[in-house]
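Board notes (copied after class):
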Amino acid sequence: MPVWTQIAVALIALAHFWFLVLEMFLWDKPQGMKTFNNTPDFAAQTKVMAGNQGLYNGFLATGLLWALFPIGLPGASQPLATFFLLCVITAGVYGAATVSRRILWVQAVPAFVALLLVWLA
């Protein structure tokens, strides 16, 4: 994979690690509540659910890093990156349809750009 493609995939992975931190550790803290426009009461009620969402974001990020470093799996970068980027896009489209259109621009569109770079490489 060319370096620009690797950077794009790595940026998507970093974003999802950040989502993990926001959802698992900062959900009921000021930064998390501001990011997700939550009230303290709602954040307290949904903290466990948000932690679960954060865990899934961590799995996506780890999968994307695996695509960048597929040790022992020569030639696996493109299929791994494709799978995990499609997962990110799917989650982003679903989130945009059910929660906020902003998710489309924050999550799905950047992953789609990275996917294009993966396939153009």
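Comment from the instructor: The mean pLDDT is 96. The CA atoms of residues 20 and 54 lie 4 Å apart.
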